[in-house]
Amino acid sequence: MQFTLNGKRVRVDAHPMARLLDVLRESCGLTGTKEGCGEGECGACTVLIDRAPVNACLVPFAQVAKAHVTTIEGLRGRHPLQRAFAELGGAQCGICTPGMILAAVALGPRPSTSAIKTGLAGNICRCTGYSAIYRSVQRAGAHARVRR
Amino acid sequence: MLGSVADRQLFEPRTLRDALRMLDQEGPLVPMAGCTDLYVSLNFGTLTATRFLNLWGLDELRSIAVPDGVLSIGALCTYTDIIRSRAVRVRLPMLAAAAREIGGPQIQNRGTLGGNVANASPAGDTLPVLAAADAVVVAASSAGTRRIPFVEFYTGYRQTLLAANELIVAVEIPRVRGRQWFRKVGTRAAQAISKVVMAAIDDSGGDPPRIAVGSVGPTVLRLPSTEAALAAGAKVDEAQRLLLEEIAPIDDVRSTAEYRRRVVVNLLATFWKSRR
Amino acid sequence: MLRKDGLEKVAGTAKYIDDLTFPNLLHARTIRSTIPVGEITGIAFNFDTEGFTVVDHRDVPGRNIVALIDDDQPCLVERTVRHVAEPILILAHSDRRRLAAADVRIDYRPAVPNYDPAASSVSFKSVAIDKGDLDAGFSAADAIVEGEYRVGSQEQLYIEPNGMVAVPADDGRGITVYGSMQCPYYVHRALTVLLGFPSERVRIVQTETGGAFGGKEEYPSIIAGHAALAALKARRPVKLVYDRVEDMIATTKRHPGLIRHRTGIRRDGRLTAMDVDVLLDGGAYATLSAVVLSRGVLHASGPYRCDNIRIRGRVMMTNTPPNGAFRGFGAPQTQFAIEVHMDRIAAALNLDPVRLRDRNALRPGDTTATGQRMGADCSAREVLREAVKRTGFAKRRKALAGTNKGIGLSLFFHGSGFTGAGETKLASKASLALTKRGARILVANTEMGQGTRTMLAQIVADTLGVAYDDVEVNAADTGEVPNSGPTVASRTCMIVGRLLERCALEMRDRLAGLSPRAYLRRHGPLVVTKQYEKPPEMDWDESTYRGDAYGSFGWACDVIEVEVDRDTWAVRPIKLTTVHEVGKAIHPTLVAGQIEGGTAQGLGWALLEDVIMRDGRMVNHTMTTYIVPTTLDTPDMDIVVMERPYKHGPFGAKGVGEMPIDGPAPAVVNALRHAGFDLREIPATPEKLMSCSSR
After folding, report:
1. Which residues of A touch B35 (CB under 8 A)?
2. How far is the alpha carbon of C96 from chain B, nearest alpha carbon, in Å?
3. In the predicted model, is pLDDT for residue C146 greater than 80?
4. Which residue of chain A comes nearest to C2, CA vs CA?
5. What is the assigned CATH class of domain C428-531?
6. C618–chain B nearest CA distance, Å
């Protein structure tokens, strides 16, 4: 099936009902998207579909047929959020980080603290207590240009 | 996770008509929308069905419109669609309030109103809203369309009037007069399953009050005796006594029957006392 | 300063065990008991076993035990089952579908389980601490206050579940295991015993670990053993990774407990006698229970001075999955009790809870329950006063009285490093190798998010006088690094950091002004190794439990404001202030990270997290039903870090990893008391508050 992955049109052979999470990790070799719970609770598998954050463990592969999927690899390490998370303690063990950063990307530039908390409510972090994540998002927002 | 993908077959209609035809000819098929409940069951191996119908591409089921003052919400509208809809915010704000409290952004971007209704969980967060507002479920099959009053839609625990070859295509909500009230009591502040969930409309618009509760019985419940008593001018504590007779909460992994009883009567009082 | 692994983690390129590929890999699955206690009477395979590797206890080449402290836990059940989810068989196959579908039927002769530690007849450990004359202390008291306090279990809930890949050596007499873990040398020892291989034929390599919190201290030895047994039998690499449900049901958790206090107090608020009884539930096997109990009882009288103290502790066996290490390791449990008890004492005697604590807090020169004399870095009163001042505590207490809000505090401390002679027994070694640009750190201590690589590199860079970017940290690979001890007990900075500081000091001397490159060209390779040296003034008697229990203590005070919903009794933490005295904050961002993260976990334990057991099995075993805090459940935190250097820590640092989790639960319960709820246990769920309102 064809779909757009990190800006490129790709063709991937996988069962239409395979979880998008497994297609990304196994068929595409992109292991940045993680499995923490398999039930859409932890958000570690968050990817963007048409710029909206979703849990890839709950998305059937068939349903991304006409969609643009963005994984953490699609940010190529160059998004201001990535630098901010690395510098300000937003990442500790790092397992929730890819999903957290993608959910934060979807907040847009300069989100309010309240918007950050609501926008990241679907991402569980067990290490940071979230404070450093807010600081990271705010720091990135301070440097943000409007990105597509 | 459990469950093998290789055994599953997915039918992919391009139109609603296709989908209904497939349900007739290839059924039984499990309809698949946002999959936020379905894929949890598949991942954990509690759903062993092997034939599925992918509704996600049916854009005709995604519209929100207000024909003749009736708010019509397509079955494939996601919670995010509902939260962002001006029509919903103006006409049925308690539905937007409910949508905002379901899961987190990831679930809201995928979970659909039709899915919430069809899934028939007693804890479904939109269900008390639809019950209190006397919504109508629009169901389609290859034989045509019928409209089912929401309050009749559930016949038992996780059981609906929907036939195997029918799909929910929309939910219609007639104009609501009176102030809308919604409260979800979850296990935590976000990403929580309800312990108690209540939606209500007061009498400030001239209609008698309507109250519906979830997670306190095998289905979402309207409270006819409680409503009638309040409409007749009963005091809150009398209404609370009647309320307790209309619900059947249980102990489960999330909470206790006793807690649910006490919270529901508190919520009733808070709702009624907040009338202007 | 960028953390060492930061760029890989934010880019998604850091490799956790499930991300790694190995050629010729088999997948494995654990078949576990479904009863809490009994004997296995039959095992039947209701599937086509072609292509399967099946491992049972008879396949253990060495000793079928999980070598840790006691030798009571089998790696695979022989015949007697002692808890639900006890591992019986390992199946391996290349096809995950066939592996998942394999239907194994096990027949049992069940026996009668015991789930009540108070009714158990098997004690893993008991400890007695005595100071002064308890009877005299009670005689001198004007009042006596008693109380019973209960703490629930807690699941570590690292977002990356347990996982291992075992790769057998070609000759079948060696093994390499890669995986998620805190203590490579614990796994190393366990596997040499299990497999009967010599030390040098077992190699353990830690992969990037997605959270641990103690849950990957001892448990990895079991999953590594299972993967290794399967790999050796199949003669192929085997991957064993748990899903969330299995991880919740089968792996270790915090010891739940019941703590009783009986306290004598003078009218002026001075404690005259403290009698404490600690009962912990160890689950079915000993694991680390003895050490959890030890730390628990050593913190049971709190950061207070009292001349007459008696503490009794025991940890008992029950037919539930064994409990094990979780951040705090006994101290959160016992400090919950003493801090809630102190507020009840204050209420009973109409004393101000701050003044009660200030009057009794340890000061330099005072002695603890074991007779350890506090030094100049004893900061109990300082953290208390700072927290109280910063929050306007007295004023808030008055302002919130009689409302549905409350404000409460807890004063707590935490000993760094292993108890007593533990560090001496560990005899940790750390090495530093000179490189062309700087140095390479060789330790077995692991990064699990807390910043080990970063903090140790910073210590070496600052001491050696090279750039932080020129200090590398070797992988925690037992084939390459010395045994610097486990990454537990808040010891990594204070003990191992200090070893590396000494290495770097010697290396700097040996360089004598030469650049690393020039030195290597002139003299060849240089590796400096240092071993733990007990501070001469530390003196501990394990048989009497008297003396210097820890090299140093950290000190902290939490103040929290909460609101109780009038309709639902749900508790909303509004604001938390915490003051931590940690000796020296080597890397302020990392220290803040430990305080904020540990505090959030403490709040989760206090309010949301409940391990619900039915018939010996955890029934809320998903992330939907086991509730940890989201962003919207976590309050804003005001963190203050104070520094009072500890002479034997690197740059004066003590530990900080665990202390933060000791304080939030009692602070919350004390705030709830202020709001009118007489609660003496956690989790403080709305259902519990509903039944204990004293208004």
Report:
1. 58-60, 63
2. 9
3. yes
4. A87
5. alpha beta
6. 11
Instruction: List pLDDT tens digits, range C271-316.
Output: 999 999 999 999 999 999 999 999 999 999 999 999 999 999 999 9
Mean pLDDT in order along chain A per 10 residues (148 residues): 97 97 98 98 98 98 97 97 97 98 96 97 98 97 61
Task: Determine whether the interchain pair B44/A39 forms a contact, defined as Cβ–Cβ distance below 8 Å.
Answer: yes
Q: Residue C101 pLDDT > 70, yes or no?
A: yes
Q: What is the pLDDT of residues C249-267, one digit of tens each?
A: 999 999 999 999 999 999 9
Task: Give the per-residue pLDDT at C694.
Answer: 54
Residue A147 within any structural domain of the chain: no
The 3 state secondary structure assigned to C226-287 is HHHHHHHHHCCCEEEECCHHHHHHHCCCCCCEEEEEEEEECCCCCEEEEEEEEEEEEECCCC
Q: Using 50, 70 and 90 to split pLDDT, how confident is the model at C403?
A: very high
Q: Of C97, C630, C690, which has the smallest distance from its Cβ to B259's Cβ? A: C690
- Pick among 3.40.50.300, 3.40.50.150, 3.10.280.10, 3.30.365.10: CATH of C21-112+157-250: 3.30.365.10
Confidence of residue C420 (pLDDT cuts 50, 70, 90): confident
Of C16, C597, C630, the CB nearest to A92: C597
**Nearest chain C Cα distance for residue B236, angstroms:** 15
Class of domain C124-154+253-419+547-691: alpha beta
Do C124-154+253-419+547-691 and C428-531 share a fold? Answer: yes
* Cα C446 to Cα C645: distance, rounded to the nearest angstrom: 25
Please judge whether C608 and B190 are an interchain contact, meaning their C-beta atoms are less than 8 angstroms apart: no
Nearest CA in chain C to B255: C687
* Tally of CB atoms within 10 A around C105: 10
Residue C1's pLDDT band (cuts 50, 70, 90): confident
Burial class (CB in 10 A: 0-12, 13-18, 19+), A77: middle
Contact B189 C568 (CB under 8 A): no
Relative to beta strand C552-564, strand C571-581 is antiparallel
Nearest CB partner across the interface for A89, out of C12, C15, C589:
C589
Nearest CA in chain B to C245: B44
- Model pLDDT, residue A144: 61
Which amino acid is located at C622 in the chain? T
Q: Are residues A51 and A98 in the same domain?
A: no
Q: What is d(CA C506, CA C512) in angstroms, rounded to the nearest whole number? A: 10
In sequence order, the 6+-apart residues with CB closer than 8 A to the CB of B66 are B72, B87, B91
Interchain CB contact of B267 with C (< 8 Å)? yes
Burial (0-12, 13-18, 19+ Cβ within 10 Å), B238: middle
Q: Do B267 and C245 touch (CB under 8 A)?
A: no
Chain C, nearest residue to A44 by Cα: C159
CB-CB under 8 Å, A39 with B40: yes
Give the pLDDT confidence score for residue C269 in this predicted structure.
96
Residue listed under structure tokens 């049916």: B58
Question: Could you tell me which chain C residue has the CA closest to the CA of A43?
Answer: C159
Residues of B in contact with A56 (CB under 8 A): none
Nearest Cβ partner for B190 among C243, C572, C630 = C630
Mean pLDDT across chain C: 97
The number of domains in chain A is: 2
Supply the range of the domain harboring residue A44.
2-74
Beta-bridge partner residues of B221: B213
pLDDT at site C399: 98
Across residues C550-567, what is the average pLDDT? 97
Q: Name residue B191's amino acid.
A: Q
